[in-house]
Amino acid sequence: MSTTQLILDYVYDHEAQHPDQIYLTQPVGAGATVDYTWRQVLDQSRRMAAHLKAQGLEPGARIALLSKNCAHFFMAELAIWMAGGTTLAIFPTETAQTVRFQLEHSAASLLFVGKLDTWEQQASGVPDGLACIAFPLAPKTSFDSWDAIVERILPLSGRPQRAPTDLAMLCYTSGSTGQPKGVMHSFERVTQASLVLSKYVTATIGEGTPLRTLSYLPLAHIFERAWVECISFIGGRTHVYFAESLDTFLQDLNRARPTTFLSVPRLWLKFQQGVFSRIPPSKLDRLLGIPILGRMVGRKVLKGLGLDKVVLAGSGSAPIPAELITWYRRLGLNLMEGYAMSEDFACSHTSTSRFNAPGCVGIPLPGVEVRIGEEGEILIKSPGQFVGYYQRPDLDALSFMPDGFFRTGDMGVRNEDGLLRLTGRVKELFKTSKGKYVAPAPIENRINACPLVEMSLISGVGQPAAYAMVVLAEDLRPQQGDAAVRAKVEIELSQLLIDVNKDLANYEKLRMIVVSPEPWTIENGCLTPTMKIRRSRIESTVDARVADWYAINSPVIWA
Questions:
Q1: How far is CA 448 from the centre of its chain?
Q2: Domains within the chain, CATH numbers bracketed
Q3: How many CB atoms lie within 10 A of CB 5?
Q4: E-strand spans in 159-206?
């Protein structure tokens, strides 16, 4: 076995070196919280690990977690690793069908059920006979409880080890392009990637800055798992706070006063729209342009969002409009965009203080190799490169180049400084009847920069021209039935269409903007659990009406 330190070794060191340092803060309702020190976290994890080992599970057994973010997710992950297992985290918003698919496809031996909003609908997805354990914040079940187990079991002692090639995690992709795929990550790769990310964060915020973060993006997604959980396992000085609910999010943020804060484009946009609901964009723009006063106004806006202490702000998971990054930077928040995938353990590209530009996703992190293929596809080798797809050697053969570079499926270009700009997805390209390919993502980014729009989708396969479908901003949706509001929105969307088309090639120009009657959500299947749009699902719901839209020949259509 290699003598190189793996991620569990770093955790054991934190337990020994600063046992009484507060590590996790968990809301438990009504504004109350519980703090857990490194000593307490490891005591509970060691006791649960002893229980798991007593079950006689095979080495590398897949043990699943179905839970929203909480302290016991971290504890359970450590327990599974110490017991010799492989963790499988399932998105807490998944349907019963997807829960069953992942549990059966992975041959899971046990399931931890945690904090959930829709357990009644998900419970039928758990196969009969599968052993289950309930976290303290889980819905009421008949399962053996975490607290009861750790109370009666003595803790596993010493420093249980894992081999570098053992599987640490099996992570299913969010399914934006079809059936979720099981991405396998070894302890060696997880450790290497987490070290790279931890060093980036420390270098960005500075050695003396307290590292506080709020964990709220799904831990089942690699983005949060790597940049929050595993960085905290490696670095040890992170104080991780958890969010209680959507309703208490602002309160949770203000409790944490994070110095690092990660989000996804949709939420960065919603924060902006929340600001605009309180102060008109034109007025805010004018105030920000006044010397001295502008800085004061920016700080006040950031404090209202709970982000005034943030030193490192990051956006990932999907492209973010360049205009949105510029807007946050005017407020005084140096928002950085990054780019990575489940397949490289979120260790690929990120912006730095020296190398950053709105519209670009940064430069390669240390140890990451990148090249652009002949067709414009981004090819990556990363310290966090996955071992392969679970039970899918056919996909492995298609996904890797002969020299080991991974085919990301994303298209991009690099400038002379090495900054990478994404130009679309290979599989998202489509042809109109003009016979030329249209890349949706860059056009969607331009539309999403409009304050009226929350999300957009560009489509039009085989049609005379492409079209845009949009979901209006949340504050506008309840007013869609108001004739005056509707007329104003039509005028502004018509102008948006003109503005966007000015910069597009003839074959890319949009015929119309279609307003979706309903928002796209995780619940109605139009968004993945990581809030990416499911193109095929949305397109299939409107397919029968597309021909009528083109026949109307209007710049704005209400679907």
A1: 18
A2: 38-186 (3.40.50.980), 429-558 (3.30.300.30)
A3: 13
A4: 167-172, 182-186
